[in-house]
Amino acid sequence: MKIAIVGKGGVGKTFIASNLIKLFEKNGYRVIAVDCDPNPTLALSFGIEEEIKPLSKREDIINERVVLEGGIYNINPKVDDLIDKIGYRVGNVTLIIMGTIEKSGEGCVCPASTLLRKFLRHLILKEKDVVILDMEAGLEHFGRKTLEGIDLMLIVVEPTKKSIVTAKRMIKLGKELGIKKIGVIVNKVRDKIELDLDAEIYGFIPYDEAVLEAELKGEEIKEGKALEAIEEIFKKIISS
């Protein structure tokens, strides 16, 4: 199963993605976790503070497989050994960092995006394998078609109009990409709310000050209503 976690900036995508990853691993899955955020922080959720070289900085692989003579891109690069070459193993989780532009005038991450898109499209998964992508905020990845071939897109929404408007756009774009399952996770909920969205609600995560405090300190949350809600979402994912 390939799952993409998307949404507007600041809605809690990485918190939800990291805890879903841990739940899948705890339940015997082999997890490939891809941090697609330009400001990658997913590794911190697993206590990894050392710098992991991102795919966007692996010029050796990109130049060998994607960039041809004259700056032309190879749209059919070799990807079958990519996990071993760029993955960082933590238990039964393999973490891949997409990376981003760090200096003005550095160019785009298009070659790395091409490699990642091809990798995701042709990755063969066994029954107890799952890929979870913590996507960058906003809509750009829809334009790059990074989400082609995803089995489930989960849109994280907080109870604000801007977040809901963004979710509606994502639902439309996801359907245009042919994503068959699109769900919504409502985060930071203080009171019961109803949403007019053309997608199934996978769960409501209550607002929890303990989550904010732990995130600020870089500590792991091990209990609380927010984690209980994410566990119910996990159960819904594997049963659907």
What are its keywords?
240 residues, 8-stranded mixed beta sheet, alpha/beta
Q: Topology, pairings included?
A:
Blueprint: E1 2-7, H1 13-26, E2 30-35, H2 59-65, H3 82-86, E3 88-90, E4 93-97, H4 110-122, E5 129-134, H5 140-144, E6 152-157, H6 161-176, E7 181-189, E8 200-206, H7 209-217, H8 225-239
Parallel strand pairs: 1-5, 1-6, 2-4, 2-5, 6-7, 7-8
Antiparallel strand pairs: 3-4
Helix pairs in contact: 1-8
Describe the structure.
The chain has 240 residues and is an alpha/beta fold. It contains 8 helices and 8 strands; from the N terminus they run βαβααββαβαβαββαα. It has helices at residues 13-26, 59-65, 82-86, 110-122, 140-144, 161-176, 209-217, 225-239; strands at 2-7, 30-35, 88-90, 93-97, 129-134, 152-157, 181-189, 200-206. An 8-stranded mixed beta sheet has the order 3-4-2-5-1-6-7-8, sandwiched between helices. The model is unreliable at 101-108 (pLDDT under 50).
> In sequence order, what are the helices and strands, one letter per element?
EHEHHEEHEHEHEEHH
SS class:
alpha/beta
Mean pLDDT: 83
Low-pLDDT stretches are 101-108
What is the CA–CA distance across the termini? 11 Å
Radius of gyration: 18 Å
Number of extended strands: 8
Number of helices: 8
**Beta-strand percent range:** 15-25%
Percent helix range: 25-40%
Shape estimate: globular
Strand order of the largest sheet: 3-4-2-5-1-6-7-8
Biggest sheet record:
8 strands, mixed
